[in-house]
């Protein structure tokens, strides 16, 4: 995903964060900026977890990057909900 540049990170992160927040039912509490942040941080988290599992994340392509961001965003939202004990992120 490094080849996409900052605009690519924002677009992919925003979409992944938004869809992740829809899946985790936190979208009503989040705005577009928080969706982007959740998606980008989720991408970093997802990439880290895949590397730990031995998956080569370099050169995975746009779809692979999006899925990595989406899964990472869902995991991040789940952790935040579990730690805070609330549905608000």
UniProtKB/TrEMBL annotation:
Look up the record and report any one GO term of the cellular component aspect.
plasma membrane
Matching InterPro entries: Transgly_assoc
- TM ranges: 6-24, 31-50, 62-83
Please state where this protein is localized. Answer: Cell membrane
**Its membrane topology:** Multi-pass membrane protein
What are the record keywords, sorted?
Cell membrane, Membrane, Transmembrane, Transmembrane helix
Protein family: Belongs to the UPF0410 family.
What name does UniProt use for this protein? Answer: Membrane protein
């Amino acid at each position: 995903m490094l080849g996409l540049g900052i605009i690519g990170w924002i677009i992919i992160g925003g979409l992944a964060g938004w869809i992740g927040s829809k899946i985790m039912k936190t979208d009503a509490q989040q705005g577009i900026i928080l969706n982007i942040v959740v998606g980008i941080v989720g991408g970093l988290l997802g990439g880290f977890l895949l590397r730990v599992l031995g998956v080569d994340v370099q050169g995975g392509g746009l779809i692979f990057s999006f899925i990595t961001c989406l899964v990472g965003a869902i995991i991040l939202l789940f952790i935040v909900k579990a730690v805070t004990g609330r549905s608000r992120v």
